[in-house]
Each structure stands twice: as C-alpha cells, then as structure tokens.
Amino acid sequence: MNRLIVLLLGAVLTSAAWAKLPELTEEQKAAAAEKKAKADEATKKANEQLAVAQDRVAGKYIEQMKAKGVTVTPTPVVPPAPPAAAPVPAPAAPAAAPAAK
C-alpha cells in the first residue's frame, strides 16, 4: 500500500512540474532543431555502416558455403513503400432545419 501511495505522489508531483515549464525561446528551438538534424545524420550514418557490415557478413557466409559445395542465393529485399497519405474525410452533410410547429 505504501508503494502505491509513493508512486501516486511521484506521478502527481512529476505531472505538476511538467505543467509549469515555460515555452521554448527561438534560440532553444533552433538548438533543438540542430540537435535533431545531427541525430538524424548520425542515425543515417549508423544505418549505412550496419548495411555494409551485414553485406560483408553475408558475403563471407556465401563464400564459406561455396567452399563446402552449397549454393546460396541471397533473398532480394525490397525497401518498404512510403506510408500512404491519410484519406481526406468527406464533408459532413448540413443538418436539417427543425420542423416548425
């Protein structure tokens, strides 16, 4: 029971702290955008390095299997298609006027 109380108290205090944060300044927004761009670039570079390493490992595996007399053909991988745009909802029909009595 004490753990539950402590957890609830912590959640309330944490949510209160987040609610009082001020808006970001233009400098902070620019710094955040720059940081995001650097992170995206680093992720792209890491993904490229991963692909090179995977190709190298696959190549060695194919060579080893070839030496054993086993024919290995890699499965072609098609990159995923970009997500489709969300469909635009049809405009709602106008509401009928109430009947007069």
TrEMBL record:
Keyword annotations: Coiled coil, Signal
Ranges annotated as biased composition (Pro residues): 78-92
Region (Disordered): 78-101
Signal sequence region: 1-19
Coiled coil: 25-56
Name by which UniProt lists this protein: Formate dehydrogenase
Organism from which the protein derives: Methyloversatilis universalis (strain ATCC BAA-1314 / DSM 25237 / JCM 13912 / CCUG 52030 / FAM5)
